[in-house]
Amino acid sequence: MAWRPAEAAAFFALHDALMDQDTPGLSTADRELVVVATSAANDCLHCVVAHGAIARIRARDPYLADQVAVDWRKAPVSARLHAVLEIAVRLAAQPATVTAADLDRLRGHGLTEDDVWDVGAIASLFALSNRLPHWAAIPPNEEFFLMGRVPRQ
Amino acid sequence: MAWRPAEAAAFFALHDALMDQDTPGLSTADRELVVVATSAANDCLHCVVAHGAIARIRARDPYLADQVAVDWRKAPVSARLHAVLEIAVRLAAQPATVTAADLDRLRGHGLTEDDVWDVGAIASLFALSNRLPHWAAIPPNEEFFLMGRVPRQ
Amino acid sequence: MAWRPAEAAAFFALHDALMDQDTPGLSTADRELVVVATSAANDCLHCVVAHGAIARIRARDPYLADQVAVDWRKAPVSARLHAVLEIAVRLAAQPATVTAADLDRLRGHGLTEDDVWDVGAIASLFALSNRLPHWAAIPPNEEFFLMGRVPRQ
Amino acid sequence: MAWRPAEAAAFFALHDALMDQDTPGLSTADRELVVVATSAANDCLHCVVAHGAIARIRARDPYLADQVAVDWRKAPVSARLHAVLEIAVRLAAQPATVTAADLDRLRGHGLTEDDVWDVGAIASLFALSNRLPHWAAIPPNEEFFLMGRVPRQ
Amino acid sequence: MAWRPAEAAAFFALHDALMDQDTPGLSTADRELVVVATSAANDCLHCVVAHGAIARIRARDPYLADQVAVDWRKAPVSARLHAVLEIAVRLAAQPATVTAADLDRLRGHGLTEDDVWDVGAIASLFALSNRLPHWAAIPPNEEFFLMGRVPRQ
Amino acid sequence: MAWRPAEAAAFFALHDALMDQDTPGLSTADRELVVVATSAANDCLHCVVAHGAIARIRARDPYLADQVAVDWRKAPVSARLHAVLEIAVRLAAQPATVTAADLDRLRGHGLTEDDVWDVGAIASLFALSNRLPHWAAIPPNEEFFLMGRVPRQ
Predict the structure, then answer these.
(1) What residues of chain B have any CB closer than 8 angstroms to a CB in chain C?
(2) 0.90 cut: is pTM over it?
(3) Residue-wise pLDDT tens digits, B109-131
(4) CA A19 to CA E78: how far, in whole Å?
(5) Which of B40, B44, B63 sits opposite C142 (nearest CB)?
(6) Model confidence over E49-86: pLDDT tens digits?
(7) ipTM > 0.90?
(8) F26 - beta bridge partners?
(9) Pick from B65, B26, B30: which is nearest to B47 by CA?
């Protein structure tokens, strides 16, 4: 039982289109932290550990991914990223409560139309991605637990 | 602001790989009802209306989609489909509670390994798909509200 | 096992006193939509289908009942009716959170004292009415599923 | 703003039909405790205090109403009444989860068809009754706080 | 199985340091009402009954403890105490939602730094204390049910 | 604003009495994992990070603390520890649902009376301890994020 090749190709096409962008309003590190916060809301170990590792590397910060995973509300992030995480986690956990006013709030923090769409699309894509490891009991790769916690030599 | 062409192509590739299968353990009508039940759990009008219409046509039943959308627990479905809906809705709403025992229960109802995977993958794909209409306020097409409710002539 | 004659008479006396009023602040269509929204919050198929049909007829709109049932937050209704539905659904699902400030908000939208009372009394009456079909597994009549969806000839 | 005379008459007709029965499977004290447990689940001070007083008198027990109001699960009641309270509180708080199997469980504890119906109808009637004091901020009468706590002389 | 002597001594040292203070911003009665409200949120009969009795005596009010236990939102308390109870119950039930803005709100109602700390510490201490009676099925002493309800002679 | 010296002394007396025991039914590592699981249920970064570090060291396992923090249900632990974590997290998040049957289940896994008490007392103590960092915005010490993740040299 496994993600079939055509499905996997489609998933990674979606993934790369959303995650490999680096914009002033939504950096690659910000995008990984959206994944970490929403994946933690869904209790998905695979995604918290893998994307926590990438977030540590992209944000060049060994602590921030854990802070966002356990309690994004009190994590030391900008007001802009705090709003992004608040709305993204709400889309993950209580999707009907997200309204046009939330998107306007993101625009007020300087996100472009593309950035705004990407916040929603990333949270939505990982709503999918978080559920497959629960379904098929897929653990993270062990190297991700440590990656980005100590300086490379 | 819109689902970009490459993203849309990837989404529909995933969609068609999962929904256009008709197996003894999980018919096309069953698959649509999984979408209806999980989309209702996510309060997604777009998906409830569009896939409700397709479910009515595929199940050749003008009532079942509404019954499943409002309260799948008491809908007149087989014990097999009842188990499918119970586990799929749980993956949609409380994903961490799904365990290997749930998948065994589906196998016990005659689902093949492919069928079992598809239940989880459909509920996961619509966890994605349900959130985009909330994000971008996308309404359903009006013709879906009525489709499948009256016999074609 | 059934609603006994004296109980049924009392129930319908309450029902008719609340639902058969048509005021500028709370039309008969609005009252039916309060029933639809709160009944959907309680997953009551019987009431969603029966009162959805009446709402379609009274509102002369084939779509609005489904829109309110699945996600009243994004339904195309006036600011007044949006406030009515928000507070009514909260009374249905989290009654302790309703306060005098909510009633003032309804007055601010032009509801009279009688209209304000009726919003609360309708949501409360269907808190009763929604639970009996769950208790006794009472399905809706089949003709309600289609009623009001196509123009009468 | 008040419960109008015709509505009040209808409400009390329902109330008396359900509460003034004393059967082996569901005594008048048991009925009051169903009200206390479900009203506490709805945070309704008016009903907890008034029906707590009546329950103390009918059960001839100065402690049981408070025990049931705060935590019916650990209250010193029979297995029969424990099942009644568990299912009644579930109908109050999560009505869709009640199924025919729950009613069979009540029958297994010796409740007649009338008793079973009354459990559901009482919990449903107070789903209505609990919401009106939240809506209109109706406090309990002060004499109920103490009634039944000390022996009459 | 019991709270061991050294543990009990430590618990009561904490308890007395927090509860036996009487300040303008947080009286001993206020402190007991924080215990009543948060213990009710945790369904702890032992603490609701024992500290309800003490609250009745310290507030010289036979009704207030029951009002706060069942629905603190509508209890007749000052705006200051209403804010204290709202934030304390949130710390009890949804601790991550408490932020520095909540503490500022308490300061705005005239609480000193010590008072503010004590609100959080009392709610936290009874988060501990409420769970032990659930764990070990510890009932309240019977004399607390009546204490403070009738004038002493 | 800070935990005062006498309070801190009392807290650590409780802490040490519960955590510094190593029994066949509940090792020091098991006790730390109870803290990690319940602290994660309360979104407490301070406790998840500090006690995650100690758990890694005591369990001599660099992965287990993260696995338990994000999803204890699927963590690779014994059936005994799985039951301990399930009941401890329930006491943390839904305390009224814990009953004598849960304690019997722990006895059935070989826990002594002292071990059983300690499970409840540890979950209860950290119900207190988790709330103070939310109240006063207390971050973990930075060295705990990495501790126990790499072998000591």
Answers:
(1) 40, 43-45, 48-49, 62-63, 66-67, 69-71, 74, 134, 137, 142, 145-146, 149-150
(2) yes
(3) 999 999 999 999 999 999 999 99
(4) 51
(5) B63
(6) 999 999 999 999 999 999 999 999 999 999 999 999 99
(7) yes
(8) F23
(9) B65
